[in-house]
């Protein structure tokens, strides 16, 4: 530990920003917040060692901490969302339902892929999100818990329930046709193929990109449908705590950090309403 220099800390941070550093089997880079958290953990260890006089100086002091803020996400406006709904009208029920669910619930790709029919309560109008699908190299798709390890129940709109009922009917017909040929006999995924295998999370994003390109529609990442969902709810005056629970954030501070700029804009709009209250009547 005594051999660690400031340059080693700098190289460590830079390496974390490169491709191939994820340990969850997913492609792509670590998020800005993950890089910052790794830096903080490393810094805390060395700071403790310095306080205990195990090392003569604290190497991270000379290193610039990484920026933990992610780039501002693009989202759809109300008008763009209305256009999207029109484009989905003549699309296969499978994909129409999936996109409606993504926008309505703000669920992550893996969580959507992991949904089973047992998670839908048509009477209460809710969906239980308690697992996700991930793809591991050499092992294929696997079931895991949600990102935060917390289950949540999300209320869904009537329109989504209608298309879910139609999709469930066709899903049960497909399941009956294959019978013993089902690849996942102990599970009944909402977005599975005819043999019951769940959709791969990355194939959702691939379809989404082809869809927006084909229709020359403004493209945002599929994950940004989650941000669109949250932003629209904020603009409609829904409490941040409710939005935090719908998104499955570990706590409300996560929601405030991600959507702070949207909440600030909504707060300014709210404050402007007082102008009419304070106006003097002629």
Number of H/I helices? 11
**CATH homologous superfamily designation of the largest domain:** Intergrase catalytic core
CATH topology (level 3) name of the largest domain: hpI Integrase, Chain A
Widest sheet, order of strands: 1-2-5
Architecture (CATH level 2) name of the largest domain: Orthogonal Bundle
Low-confidence sequence ranges: none
Helix/strand structural class: mainly alpha
The helicity comes to 40-55%
Q: How many angstroms separate the termini?
A: 76 Å
Q: How many structural domains does the protein architecture include?
A: 2
**Radius of gyration using CA atoms only:** 23 Å
Mean pLDDT: 87
Order of helices and strands: HHHHHEEEEEHHHHHH
As a percent range, the share of strand residues is 5-15%
Taking the sheet with the most strands, its summary is: 3 strands, antiparallel
Task: Set out the fold topology.
Layout: H1 6-16, H2 32-51, H3 78-88, H4 93-105, H5 109-113, E1 120-121, E2 126-129, E3 132-136, E4 140-144, E5 152-155, H6 158-178, H7 201-214, H8 224-235, H9 240-247, H10 252-272, H11 274-278
Helix pairs in contact: 1-2, 4-6, 4-8, 8-10, 9-10
Quick overview of this protein structure:
With 282 residues, this protein is mostly helical. The chain has helices at 6-16, 32-51, 78-88, 93-105, 109-113, 158-178, 201-214, 224-235, 240-247, 252-272, 274-278, and strands at 120-121, 126-129, 132-136, 140-144, 152-155. The strands form two sheets. The protein has a three-stranded antiparallel sheet with strand order 1-2-5, with no helix packed on it. Strands 3-4 form a two-stranded antiparallel ribbon.
